[in-house]
Design brief:
Layout lengths: L5 E2 L10 H7 L1 H4 L12 H20 L7 E4 L2 H13 L8 E4 L5 H12 L3 E4 L10 H7 L4 E5 L13 H11 L2 E5 L18 E5 L10 E5 L14 H4 L7 H13 L2 H18 L5 E3 L10 E6 L4 H10 L2 E2 L1 E2 L12 H5 L4 H5 L1 E5 L6 H21 L8
Parallel strand pairs: 1-11, 3-4, 3-5, 5-6, 6-7
Antiparallel strand pairs: 2-8, 7-8, 9-10, 10-13, 12-13
């Protein structure tokens, strides 16, 4: 059954590329020592060399220096370190944070925790497509602002932000700028030599790399302190034994992510959007142009997202929904609600995200299946009757 599944939830996790696994394998079975200093034994030195080579390769992808990039266990840890590490290092005069209401949970919940610790947290307004209101941002960022955290691209609706404009506003007020690039790193161009950004969260699991490895770009000179006690690893900012197989796999995954692949994924995305919007009473969530190349998020009126998901699953398709029934918190998508959508729109939203192993046939197959399922679900729904 798994072999027949058409997987369209690549924003949640991607299938590991076999070439990534091949690159990682020696560091499980041959070069498995911990990374030691240059005065250690040979296995440890080889492991450390591999770690530093991976660091340099990933850092170069965004125009950073190797010592500006640290490895973490993933995007959750990276964003927590960015927010809490900066909050503990800045002066008492700066006790203000700004985030968007659409951020992923590590930033949302991290800011909430800092709010309980005395920080003033302000949510910047966004428009109906999820783009930050730059005028409102300019109004609320002040010399008291320690950090602004605005994602590069949204995890649900795929909307991308104008990082240059956000960063310039931060610079004008001396505020640091963090962006969560979990879903855009190696998918979209990102160069810290041009962008006024101080901290960037990245991860491997969204680009056909291994789970459990991520990273944080920290621009040289950024005030930050480690928030976990332990050893001195990762420039004394992230204690613990380094995940060398993960780092090597992450670097390989970055190397394999190309602009040609981005163009191919965008074509799949557009093909699906065009097909699904032919179904009556549907709408695209997110910005029609400024969006991730592999993300399509559609709301279907008079249909519950969980019903659509379950019917798709029975037909061999894996997608995700913003319905509360598929949330452990039993809350509808905070992203759809955050862009002005109501609960009906959130409950009827479905996210489709493409990856390396998807093809045009997958698009056509899921579009045909959805048209049939939506028609049937509306036929038996009191709200959807005669609306197919």
């Amino acid at each position: 059954m798994l072999e027949d599944t058409i997987y369209l939830d690549n924003a949640a996790a991607t299938r590991l590329d076999e070439r990534v696994l091949e690159a990682m394998t020696p560091y499980f079975f041959e070069l498995y020592a911990v990374a030691t200093s240059q005065f250690g034994y040979s296995l440890g030195i080889d492991a450390r060399d591999a770690l530093e080579d991976a660091r340099a390769q990933i850092a170069s992808r965004i125009g950073a220096e190797p010592d500006e990039f640290i490895f973490t266990s993933g995007s959750t840890e990276s964003s927590n370190l960015a927010l809490k590490g900066v909050a503990s290092a800045v002066s008492e005069a700066r006790r203000h944070l700004v985030i968007s209401p659409l951020e992923d949970f590590p930033v949302l919940h991290g800011a909430r925790t800092l709010g309980k610790q005395g920080f003033d947290v302000t949510l910047v307004q966004v428009d109906e497509t999820g783009r930050v209101d730059l005028e409102h941002l300019r109004d609320i960022v002040s010399p008291q602002t320690a950090l602004v955290s605005i994602q590069m691209a949204n995890q649900e609706i795929g909307t991308t932000q104008d990082l240059t404009a956000v960063g310039e506003i931060c610079r004008e007020n001396g505020a640091l700028f963090h962006t969560d690039a979990t879903h855009s790193f190696a998918r979209l161009p990102l160069d810290v030599r041009d962008l006024p950004v101080d901290l960037i969260t990245v991860a491997a699991h969204t680009i056909h790399g291994p789970k459990g490895i991520g990273g944080l770009f920290i621009r040289d000179g950024t005030p930050i302190r480690k928030w976990m006690d332990g050893g001195f690893q990762e420039f004394n900012l992230r204690p613990g034994v380094e995940n060398i197989p993960g780092a090597v796999g992450f670097a390989k995954a970055v190397d394999l992510a190309t602009s040609e692949e981005r163009v191919r994924l965008q074509a799949l995305r557009d093909r699906l959007i065009d097909a699904l919007l032919q179904i009556p009473h549907t709408r695209l969530n997110g910005h029609p142009v400024h969006r991730l190349p592999h993300n399509a998020n559609i709301s279907f009126r008079f249909v519950e997202g969980e019903s659509l998901l379950l019917h798709l699953d029975m037909r061999g398709f894996a997608v995700s929904t913003g319905s509360a029934c598929f949330s452990r918190s039993l809350e509808a998508s905070h992203v759809i609600l955050g862009i002005g959508g109501n609960h009906e729109r959130a409950h009827g939203s479905v996210r489709f995200t493409f990856g390396r192993y998807n093809e045009e046939g997958d698009v056509d197959a899921v579009a045909e299946a959805i048209a049939d399922i939506v028609k049937e679900l509306r036929r038996i729904s009191p709200l959807g009757k005669d609306r197919s």
